[in-house]
Amino acid sequence: MGRSLIAFLGRRTYHRLHAFPGFHSVSPCYKYRHGLPGETDEQYVVRLAAELEAKFQELGPGTVAAFFLEPIVGASTGCTPSVPGYLLAMREVCDRHGALLCFDEVGSSRLPSELKKWVYVLTSLLE
Questions:
Q1: Model-level pTM?
Q2: Dist. CA 69–CA 89, nearest whole Å
């Protein structure tokens, strides 16, 4: 039912209709669709980190408990990993603001074994 509703309404409309009060979003790490012409991976990561930083500033100090991200985007793309440096950059922004960094689909079979090197990124969940 959920996927059918999303297909009918369109993904953005569905999520806007079902957003919870206090829920905010930033751009996803999907360079194919959201990268600028000629933008390198490094420049893209810097831009996304700046966007997340700006969102923290907009919402105010101490008001954000967690930032959720999808390390592997795949509902419509198969299996698209984040660009190099993205996960670490998001961790650094979250650390500066005392927010948890949470991965969606950590238990998913879509996560490649190479993501295991990022286990330390998840330690904020256990602190």
A1: 0.71
A2: 12
